[in-house]
Amino acid sequence: MRLKDKVALITGASGGLGKNFCKAFLNEGAKVCVTDISEEIVNNTVAELNSPGSAIGSVVDVCQRRTIQAAVSTAVKEFGHLDILVNVAGGALHTPHKFQEIDEASWDKVVDINLKGTFLCCQIVVEQFRKQGGGGKIVNISALAGRWLGSLAGCHYTAAKAGVIGLTRHLAHELGPEGIYVNAIAPTITLASQRTIDLWNARSEEYKEKLLS
Fold first, then answer.
1. 3-state SS of the chain?
2. What is the pTM (predicted TM-score) of this model?
């Protein structure tokens, strides 16, 4: 078990991608703090993981500093320390994806949750890492959109995920000397929600082949 006795806090942990990260971490021996925006879905996810003593939940709005701080405190109180942060929370959040249809509220919502939320979670978790004497791992989930474009999600999502990559590069440079290692993953489309599945199925076969080639 490569992560035995490590403690991970995972945001957006009730979604398809986040939940699978939780399962993978538990399978490798880690303790997991499951966080998401809704108490009901957090509780349901913890129950589904079925790992008493290894998986706990905490409600987090990644744009609200106090809820992130509360989750970190919960994880440390339960498990004694925190070693890993995985920033999964994000998405296009059911907003329009056509450039001219994206209003300011949609832009702010997507950029805040994907980029500001990642920044805040990193900042607060790094405070905890430093209290513990330094060291730690952060994994930020960007997207292929951040390196190319997000035609299924829109320019606000593309800009936010590109920002996550830029933020990750900067933090890796700044925090690396402290033994705090920051990396990003930029996956392609993952059929982790029904909306993504519906959007994908609506695309032409030509589009799918071009994207996957």
1. CCCCCCEEEECCCCCHHHHHHHHHHHHCCCEEEEEECCHHHHHHHHHHHCCCCCEEEEECCCCCHHHHHHHHHHHHHHHCCCCEEEECCCCCCCCCCCHHHCCHHHHHHHHHHHHHHHHHHHHHHHHHHHHCCCCEEEEEECCHHHHCCCCCCCHHHHHHHHHHHHHHHHHHHHHHHHCEEEEEECCCCCCCCHHHHHHHHHCCHHHHHHHHC
2. 0.90
